[in-house]
Design goal:
This protein has 165 residues and is α/β, with parallel strands linked by helices. The chain contains 6 helices and 5 strands, in the order βαβαβαβαβαα. It has a 5-stranded parallel sheet with strand order 3-2-1-4-5, with helices on both faces. The chain is globular and about 50 Å long. The N and C termini lie far apart (54 Å). It binds adenosine-5'-diphosphate. Adenosine-5'-diphosphate binds next to α1 and β4.
């Protein structure tokens, strides 16, 4: 039986910490679907189309990774694509509390879907999309944190926003 996992997130933008989880996750599962969602608590810098396009570009080299947008409950999306697991990345103990609650809620919603966690690599454990957006807004260099296409898109986006204001 082939094991399909879904890695959900906002990916605004995809950074090297996300990419590391995708690279390691696709070795564990037969197929990995990166599901790009809308987080009602966050106002994104990139549109969902831009986030999906970036992820498709940076995961093109992985033969068993697909990228899809999704709305609604993650467990419903996992069922819809024939998946059995949700993949999550864990950075710090503060992530732990949120992820623990989420995984319990998801288990209650659909007990047949398991959440699998991969610990963030130490070199990426400080990375978050929100922090990177703050650094970008103040003109900091994101070259060390973002894959090339994401770096270029964020640079253009920030330039355009600064020109507007
Ligand atoms: P959201 O905030 O909607 O969960 P993110 O795109 O920030 O979406 O994160 C998606 C997933 O990637 C989550 O499981 C998160 O814990 C994980 N993640 C985020 N940053 C890192 C990182 N630096 N290293 C490993 N995993 C990460």
């Amino acid at each position: 039986m082939s094991r399909v996992a879904v890695y959900t997130g906002t990916f605004d933008p995809v950074h090297l910490g996300h990419l590391d989880i995708i690279e390691r996750g696709c070795r564990v599962f037969d197929r990995l679907i990166v599901a790009v969602g809308i987080n009602p608590d966050k106002s994104p810098l990139l549109s969902i189309e831009e986030r999906v396009a970036l992820l498709r570009q940076v995961t093109a080299g992985f033969g068993n990774v697909d990228v899809e947008p999704f709305t609604g409950l993650a467990v419903h999306f996992v069922r819809q694509v024939g998946g059995s697991c949700m993949l999550r990345g864990l950075r710090t103990t503060s992530d732990m509390e949120y992820e623990f609650t989420m995984s319990l809620a998801n288990m209650t919603l659909d007990p047949e879907i398991e959440t699998v966690f991969l610990m963030a690599k130490d070199i990426y454990s400080h990375l978050s999309s929100s922090l990177l957006k703050q650094i970008a807004a103040f003109g900091g260099d994101l070259g060390k944190f973002l894959p090339g296409p994401a770096f270029m898109m964020i640079r253009e986006k920030v330039k355009a926003l600064q020109a507007e204001s």
